[in-house]
Amino acid sequence: MGATKREHFTDKQNAIATLAKALGHPARVAIMDYLLKVDACICGDIVTELPLAQPTVSQHLKELKNTGLIKGNIEGNTICYFIDEKALDKL
Fold first, then answer.
1. pTM for the full model?
2. Which residues fall within 8 angstroms of residue 7, CB to CB, at 6 or more apart?
3. Side by side, which strands form the sheet with 78-83?
4. What pLDDT, on the 0 to 100 scale, is given for residue 75?
5. Model confidence pLDDT, tens digit, residues 64-77
6. CATH classification code of 9-90
7. Chain centroid to CA 88
8. Domain spans in the chain, listed from the N-terminal domain onward
9. For the segment 28-37, what is each residue's pLDDT rounded down to a tens digit?
10. Residues 6+ apart with CB under 8 A from 64
């Protein structure tokens, strides 16, 4: 059996694996694709674009944000999401 422990790999390899894992779900890929088209938007915009419920979209946004692929700016009662260009450079 091969080594799977993170400490056996470089920081760069672990970081790229984390980003790739976040993109391992087609809904997250669709969200990233949409954000590339519109530059920035709120969760409701993504909900109208994808065949997913708002809580599901919110969960996927949370995962993308936790890995650093996207960021969010608070604007009033909403969060405006956008792609973190530095994270894309890592990929």
1. 0.87
2. none
3. 40-42, 78-83, 70-75
4. 83
5. 999 999 999 998 88
6. 1.10.10.10
7. 10
8. 9-90
9. 999 999 999 9
10. 22, 28, 31, 32, 70
